[in-house]
Write a structure and sequence with these properties.
This protein has seven helices and 15 strands. By secondary structure, it is α/β, with parallel strands linked by helices. The radius of gyration is 17 Å and the shape is globular. 47% of the residues are buried.
Length: 245
């Protein structure tokens, strides 16, 4: 499978780039959008038409992860292309008000993902772990059946022990890292060294830092993570950067 970054900043868009959104494409050609932060639609257009999405999955309902949902649905609603199917948008229903907004007649349908037993979406089997965040948020472990490859995406989270087991042996670990190492044990996001330690203990193949801070030296953020990963490859997310998993 292939992962493409669309938006990589935490909180708000800046420096001509948007907030969290990723395109995951399977070997079989299935297109899954993971979160839909600001600028997701215009950045997605550089990769494929927004009408070609097969599904969307959301970690949680903070605006920096869902800001472009309305724009995306309006794009599909007003498109002159024929045969555009209703788009399934997967989310949790622990905030019923926000979940209900996912459905729009003849355009999109909100689908509750199963946080206990997992949910299959196209070629992917996805399991979930509730994270440490001010609102309900779920990390995702995405298994591609055809290849056996595993992507783990944290959503937004502070550090907690269960993340290591959830992430174990992932081929790519996409981690929310909004803080440098001088700010650890925060109740909302990981620090560079916390993500690095999880990657090392979980024996992942590669670590990608996302939900990046708007201030500070990002090369330093990367270096701090590298210092504790024991040689695991560490990368910084950038718009339109791609990783083969």
């Amino acid at each position: 499978m292939k992962l493409t970054a669309l938006g990589v900043w935490g909180g708000y868009p800046t420096k001509d780039a948007g907030t969290t959104s990723y395109l995951l494409q399977s070997e079989s050609g299935f297109n899954l959008l993971i979160d839909a932060g600001s600028r997701a639609v215009t950045e997605l257009e550089h990769e494929l038409s927004p009408t070609k999405l097969d599904a969307i999955i959301l970690s949680h309902y903070h605006e920096d992860h869902i800001a472009d949902l309305g724009v995306l649905r309006q794009y599909r609603q007003l498109s002159h292309e024929r045969g555009i199917e209703i788009l399934n948008i997967y989310g949790h229903d622990e905030n019923q008000l926000e979940f209900d907004k996912l459905s729009l007649e003849n355009v999109s349908k909100g689908v509750v993902y199963d946080t206990i037993n997992g949910t299959s979406i196209g070629p992917f089997d996805i399991t979930f772990l509730k994270t440490v965040h001010p609102i309900t948020c779920y990390a995702m472990r995405i298994f591609e059946r055809d290849t056996g490859k595993i992507l783990v995406y944290t959503g937004d989270t502070g550090y907690f022990e269960q993340l290591t087991d959830f992430t174990r042996n992932a081929d790519l670990f996409l981690a929310d890292v909004y803080f440098f190492k001088d700010k650890s044990n925060m109740p909302n996001h990981l620090s560079s060294i916390e993500a690095g330690k999880i990657a090392r203990r979980a024996n992942v193949k590669s670590l990608v830092l996302t939900h990046l801070p708007q201030t500070g030296d990002l090369n330093l953020l990367q270096k701090e993570a590298e210092e504790v990963t024991n040689g695991i490859f560490v990368d910084l997310a950038q718009p339109h950067k791609k990783w083969s998993i």
